[in-house]
Specification:
Layout: H1 3-12, H2 26-35, H3 45-56, H4 70-78, H5 88-120, E1 128-136, E2 141-154, E3 159-162, E4 170-171, E5 175-177, E6 185-192
Antiparallel strand pairs: 1-2, 1-5, 2-3, 2-6, 3-4
Amino acid sequence: MTKVRLWTTYIRDFSQKRWIDVRPTKAQLEIAKQLGVKVQPDDTFLVLSERILDEISQAIGDTPKLKPTPKQIEFAEELNLDITEDSRRVAWGKLSQRWQIVAEERRVELRKLNADAIRENDLQIGDLVEHTRELDLFNGKVLEIRVKGIIKNVNSDGLISFSNTSYPIASAKDVKKARNSSAAKTSIRVKTKLKRITN
């Protein structure tokens, strides 16, 4: 595979764990040694790339080595990742890889939940189903979207697309068969978000 093909493959499949557990190359390790870059035992290809770039950033006119941003640190804490001693670039590399792992775990879990819902509710192409989605608005209200649509397709992850509406895909676990056979439709309304009262 040529370098161009290899690079485009990485870009195209970046969200599909392409970078996870890819070990540093021999060339990377040699360059890191020449530059005096300390390679950690768990460094991957992506993380070591960021360490090397930190070291040569000034020589190539790139952004200098900086500390992680508060947002990076906050995100890392959510992912149980310590990046306080890392640079901003290295933090990005570690966060990118950890997020891919978490996203893949969630995808596997969602796929199972959707498969269970399809089986238990006997969902099939052509069924009329209902789906309700709520989105929080900035003014403390909630945008409620209710869709009654006909199942057009169900992909391998259990995500449903509809044949009679422009509404985007929905997870099988979040739909239910329509109670009546009235015409499919989409309704949208804004409602006040109820505040939880605590003693």
